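Troubleshooting log. The previous structure file for this entry was overwritten by mistake, so regenerating from the original sequence record. Sequence copied from the archived sheet and checked twice against the printout by T.R.
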Amino acid sequence: MKELSGIPASKGLVIGKALLYLEDALPEIPRYSIKETQVNEEWRRFLLAVNTITEKIRQELNEIPVKDSRERRDILEAQLLMFEDIDFHENVKHGLESGLQNIENVVWDVSQELIQKLAALPGAEFRARIADVSGMAQELLNELLSIHPFSLAGLNEAVIIVARDLLPSQALAMNKDFVKAIVTDAGSQISHTAIIARASRIPAVMGLSSGSAQIKSGDTLIVDGDRGVVFIEPDKKTLSLYQKMIKENRAKAKMASSSNGRRAETKDGRLITLKVNMETPSEFKKALSCGAEGVGLYRSEFIFLAGDKAADEENQYRTYSEMLKAARNLPVTIRTLDAGGDKIIPSLFQDSDEKNPLLGWRSIRVSLSMPDIFKTQLRAILRASVHGDVRIMFPLISGLAELEQALRFLEEAKTECAAKKQPYSDTIPVGIMVEVPSAALIANRLIKKADFFSIGTNDMIQYTLGVDRGNEKVSYLARPEHPAILRLIKMTIDAAHKQGKPAAMCGEMAGDTRFTPLLVGLGLDEFSMNAAALGDVKHIIRGISFAECQKLAKKALQCAGTERVAALLGSS
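Regenerated output below.
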């Protein structure tokens, strides 16, 4: 047995047979010089290849049923933007005219230069875009050289796909009925292929580095998408353990699904609102089937990652409008642009060279320093508000001045919409994410200017405990049950309730069932989480008493150390 560790890109446990898929290998690239008289012909070949690929994408877009997943459409539209990118075309043409080399050679050189630039920049989003650029180059080279790889659409038996990398186009095309899991050497949690896997509920482990070199077709694999682990030819003990875990998960899912259609209500009558966190509008359809009561966090930065065209006002307006219509009047909370730190938007951070980006120019600070971009987003949300129940949420507010400035920009955006006679709702609730200790400590002041709070535990843990959540050497310190975190959460909830306003949570802690009774006892009104966790959380809430949860919370707040809180929760 071999055990490989990677990135948990899509949750779930699977046992199955491997299919080694190495169609992602780059073709051998011919290299030769051309004459100036041949430049036009080589450029024509490039445009023909681009046109052939983009026409296929457009045909796929036209064939997507209206009721089908928006996620497919989003990714295909992002691919169109890449293949038609003006800067990329100009760089290829310049390389062709100045280097006088065949077009395949030029496409390779230009794409590699772009990949090197992205690799030199900080941030997981840049690294995720490397895979997209690499995939674009490969598709262009295959088309130029008339190479047509095997399609995963032809799968007719259940397999676990193992690849060096899986292009978004390949992931979209695969017959998902026969894909039990995905395992790749490359990739990340925010790559397009990871998004497709999560939307399709296919477990995935990525970033294994050498998995494809160690796994053979036909090998028995265990894919643990929860922990990011893959076992090759597992021994009897490991196989038996995972078979038991899979059986237990199915039983839990069955019990959780029995709560669908019922409210998350404790045994003594306290109602809790359960919503979902989303990255793409397409996820909401599946969230509705899980009993979601709305969207507690829509991460709007994923629109900006697709490029400037995707982030223009009209495109944002269309995206938000479609989501609100799909929500069928359920509330949708749109978090304004949360860029920077470990989420770099290429078009905004070209000249950024921060030594400590997580403590620097990020999130609401970016928006406030770029009023045109900020107000463009606010206008798009305002205009979309006529199509449903929308809420606006400002991220990483650390003080009253930031909140007041953001609210002023919102009023300016309303004035600009009114001047253009663009209708919008004038009763949109506006809240903030409480993510840093300073916000929790002055929560009683901030709530007077906000309609609601939503606690972002991921950053709250990072900033309160001084732990880089991406650093595996100190990740063991990032414990939600630390007494300081519990007290900041309680302080935030109490401040909201004192003003008669709701307090929500949209961090990972909200979807972790270990903490459900504790958070209910602390007084949390609303949980927002990954859709896959919603059924389990609801099942727990329906089986507990609010009065008992309050006693548990009181005991936890009196604990002096993390381990004591953990022991208390383990015995509850």
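DSSP finds 23 helices and 17 strands in the chain. Archived copy saved in two places this time.
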